[in-house]
Amino acid sequence: MKETEKNTFHVLENVIFLKKSALFSSMKTSELRAIATIAQELQFVDTKEIVRENDVGDSLYLIKEGSVAIKKVIDETESIHLATLAQGECFGEMALFDTEVRSASVYAQGSCTLLCIQREELFDLLIDFPTIATEFLKIFIKRLRSANKKVESMALNGKEK
Asked: Does the pLDDT value for residue 76 go beyond 90?
């Protein structure tokens, strides 16, 4: 198979994957093709650090295969497990829109394959495909609502004591 055929097949495979992802499911095929073209596929082995807490980020990661663990450092000897994300989920989306440091570390759980989307390349796409930004807003709102519910639950549990 020629290299251009491999690349075309790989882009189409990633378009199908993106369409199944909650973040990108409502996007048009042309938008998905543009995203799939800039996405880099990365492989990680079990326990490999993907993102380090307090590093400046510039990428969004989509889990194509496998799962990852998100952990927050408490001190030099302890960290807490915040979440496990699986196929189709994403992390690092805040780094696309600000220059703050990463809020947690992310580690591969078993072997995993990720699609990585870099900030600069995404911003170039937003000029031609502004509706992509709307999809990112949706995921931010969803996660904010979830965080609000957790805070509310913690506050209510504190009042019961």
From this structure: no
